[in-house]
Amino acid sequence: xxxxxxxxxxxxxxxxxxxxxxxxxxxxxxxxxxxxxxxxxxxxxxxxxxxxxxxxxxxxxxxxxxxxxxxxxxxxxxxxxxxxxxxxxxxxxxxxxxxxxxxxxxxxxxxxxxxxxxxxxxxxxxxxxxx
Length: 131
Prior knowledge:
By secondary structure, this protein is α/β, with parallel strands linked by helices. It is built from four helices and six strands; from the N terminus they run E-E-E-H-E-H-E-H-E-H.
């Protein structure tokens, strides 16, 4: 099942797509995650949790900017998921220092497993049964 949310007009182009497979989902985010768009991301992630998704891979490779509210959105979603170290994993490209940096500065890179490719994240985070 594919679910999509997008925003444009006054906001920088922003899009969230989710592919759901049972209790797992891969969410692809594109654009800037800021005060205007973080609520859209939060709504999508919480909607997935409410439908029974227990593990998420969030692909941020098409994200061009992330504010602290975006970090908080991901932390809040992680807390709503089933208990486990790999219930929410991130994909951030090796060439995305501007996205990886905020996670490292806040030490959230020790909270979220971060992978350079979607395939690696899926193999690491969705291959085990949910807790």
